[in-house]
Amino acid sequence: MSEDGKERAVELRYEGGAHALPLLTGTEGDKAFEAKTLLSHAGMVTLDPGFANTAACQSKITYIDGEAGILRYRGYPIQDLAAGSSFLEVAYLLIHGELPGPGELKDFSEQLRANAALPVEMRAMIDALPRDGHPMVLLGAAVNTMAAFYADTVDPGDSDQVDRATLLLLAQLPTIAARIYRNSVGEQPLEPDHSLGYVEDFLRMTFGGDSGSKELDELYAKAMDLLLILHADHEQNCSTATVRVVGSSQASLYGSVSAGINALFGPLHGGANQAVLEMLEEIRGLGGDVDSFLAKVKDKESGTRLMGFGHRVYKNFDPRSKEIKGLAAQILDRQEQPDELFELALRLEGQALADSYFTDRKLYPNVDFYSGVIYRAMGFPTTMFTVLFAIGRLPGWIAHWREQRLDPAARIARPRQLYVGPAKRSYNG
Ligand code: CMC
Predict the structure, then answer these.
(1) How far apart, in whole angstroms, are the C-alpha atoms of residue 55 and residue 164?
(2) Contact 202/384 with Cβ under 8 angstroms?
(3) Are 22 and 33 spatial neighbours (Cβ–Cβ below 8 Å)?
(4) Are the CB atoms for 387 and 135 separated by under 8 Å?
(5) 378: Cβ–Cβ under 8 A, 6 or more apart, which residues?
(6) Residue 269 beta carbon below 6 angstroms from any ligand 1 atom
(7) 155 is catalytic
(8) Cβ atoms within 10 A of the Cβ of 77, count?
(9) What is the pTM for the complete model shown?
(10) 12 in helix, strand or coil?
(11) How far is ligand 1, taken at its centre, from the CA of residue 311, in Å?
């Protein structure tokens, strides 16, 4: 043990010297050695493309064990939250660290509902955006402008302003998303109805709320709530890491979340739910020939991936995909005709899991594999799928941004590099 109280259990030996590094142990026994003195003591940096082995921070929000397929928010297993909680309760838990009491949850919900309406100028701004633009592009843009519409809530150093920005983002993201959707299909946007629940009102603002079946409306609201819970946080994924990196410069919560939305849009991240549906449609177009499609995926030259499969952290199964697959079966069971794309997805999953290409590389269905078929059954166009992911992920982004803001160890994110470009050369020849 050294004077800073940290165990020095890792020794790095290199030509010309050795350096002892502190070893840290997480709640569940995970180990990390602290490399922050490496450059000053040993004159070298670590090289870790994609940060696959780099912990950027210590966090108390979400725990994942990728080998065992474990996901917990603030210590609570995702299966328990999926079975008994609600999205708003989970949002509160992620952001505040503890489950709300009944009075706190009611208050939280009421505050969100009371702040759901957008300022008139913001409505006009959203309505002026290109209506055929991708909803994720418009969502990122609209959220970024919240820093202008609510300019008195952008100071990360002011806790009251941060609380207000947290509330406004959570309250208004569904309203913005529904407005973007209504504009895209040429329908008049609908204003929030504060008497309805968060998810129910989002579905009403999106679809108009007259499906004709109360039972179906309730089932869809329940399904949507569950999907939002399952997407609510996933520790240092690409978009959350982005939110943290942007926030580390003391940018506003709105600007950081807007950056997270743009990171989420990529097809290797949240955009995968749209890409899965497009892939299933492509296979259907090939007459449902799963074998040929999988052969193309396995041919590295083709550049084709099995979308909705594989994960940086899960190397056994993604616990979220199990929950979602069950939900998909429940929703699609209610359709008069069997859902062709769901059947195709089941076949594709079965064949991939029986194929050593996928099992050798530990590639299993992820959260995006079945979510799209549910969204499609509910009536969402594919371009809205990643927007729904963003609504779900928002509490996670906010929780991480707020945690970093109060972390005494947090510094501006500024990675190093290993320069391998041209050596010094003369401009004048
Ligand atoms: N289809 C075919 N091969 C794959 C796939 C896939 N979906 N994913 C990984 N591989 C192969 C990859 O070619 C590589 O093979 P080899 O060792 O022979 O070169 C090996 O598996 C390891 O892949 P990697 O790219 O090093 O893995 P990664 O951890 O960097 O990438 C991933 C993780 C999720 C980006 C990747 O699995 C992928 O592209 N999946 C498809 C897109 C997708 O579904 N994304 C959603 C992820 S979950 C939700 C979210 O994050 O939003």
Answers:
(1) 30
(2) no
(3) yes
(4) yes
(5) 220, 223, 224, 331
(6) yes
(7) no
(8) 14
(9) 0.94
(10) strand
(11) 6
